[in-house]
Amino acid sequence: MSTASACRFDITLAEPRVSDEARAQKMKGLSFGKIFSEHMVVIPYREGEGWGTAQLKPFGPLSLSPAANVLHYGQAIFEGLKAYRQPDGGVKTFRIRSNAKRFNESAARLAMPELPEDVFVQAAEQLIRVDHAWVPAGLDPERLHDQSYYFRPFMIGLGDFLGVKAAEEYLFLLIGGPAGSYFQGGIKPVTIWVEEEYVRASPGGTGRAKCAGNYAASLLPAKTAKQRGCDQVLYLDAVHRKYLEELGGMNVFLVLQENGRTVIATPEKSGTILEGVTRDSLITVAKDLGYEVVERRISIDDVEQAHRDGILKEAFACGTAAVISPIGTFMSKRGSWTLNNNQVGEVAMGLRAALLDIQYGMAPDTRQWMHNLL
């Protein structure tokens, strides 16, 4: 395969397969990102030849040169998406082509080859076909303990050369495994540290790309925030150091009461925030539910003033892993602002339930967001 929209898969199954009993034991008390299913997809790329034969093989270590590009110059991108068990026992994924499109946008920004969207989708289909038993049961009636199968597609630069340039060889990989609810023990509001020293991205940088370096740069601020008793970090823009951007791995929303109307506001696309699939989906779902949604520049001064005026009713972050994470308190060097008595908000929970119902097949998929995997 070079530029074709589909490819041939060489399939090698794990031997022996994990027994039903052993798998059930591993899937007890699921958390996020700690258990992997038995197989993975690997597709090589070589400049001048294009994409090679795809392999579905047992999950296991990789072998690469110590001089590989990814280890020195950081050519590494990834995505995150989920597969959901449906009421009829089938398995579907959510807006997979949006993830495939963003994956290629990240690849272009890091001078990496684009993977045909059909191949991205085919890789997920092949993996679930052999590892479908690792997809957990569906959503609980209270919609509090969602379980799913989490896909992690990623691409890394290879090679055996220390010059600063784009690699000539790459690997696309897809791994995954069962994931429990992001909130162990129930959904609780999180405390956010407003970061005014470090920035996540700057104009002209890689903010829109889902690349490894962006997340590496967030680890120190996240560690510092935890030392302050906070759960996550909210970054401000790099130029003015006052406009809300996003959390380390999630977009942010505010719920305001403006002139007698409930308004859901989120920072506008700026080229420096990750244009989240969950963000875009929640904007659509919120509008369908009758809410007014605005994308605009929001300064931290606006947040403080809205809290002081009593019009900031709720706030939440969103992303694939958590779906919606209610924000109970903003902490900063200038003070702390607690929202809704540090309780989970009605708007946030309503949006979360509406989106989960679509993903788990409990509500009509009127926008054809779901894709059959099994």
Protein architecture, described:
The protein starts with 8 loop residues before the first strand and ends with a strand. With 374 residues, it is α+β, with helices and mostly antiparallel strands. It has two domains: 9-179, Aminotransferase class 4, branched-chain amino acid transferase, N-terminal domain (D-amino Acid Aminotransferase, Chain A, domain 1), CATH 3.30.470.10; 190-359, Alpha-Beta Barrel (D-amino Acid Aminotransferase, Chain A, domain 2). It is globular, with a radius of gyration of 21 Å. It has helices spanning 20-26, 69-72, 96-109, 117-131, 212-227, 277-288, 300-309, 346-359, and strands at 9-11, 39-46, 50-51, 54-58, 76-78, 81-85, 91-94, 148-157, 169-179, 190-195, 232-236, 244-247, 251-258, 261-267, 292-296, 312-319, 323-332, 335-338, 370-372. 25% of the residues lie in helices and 30% in strands.
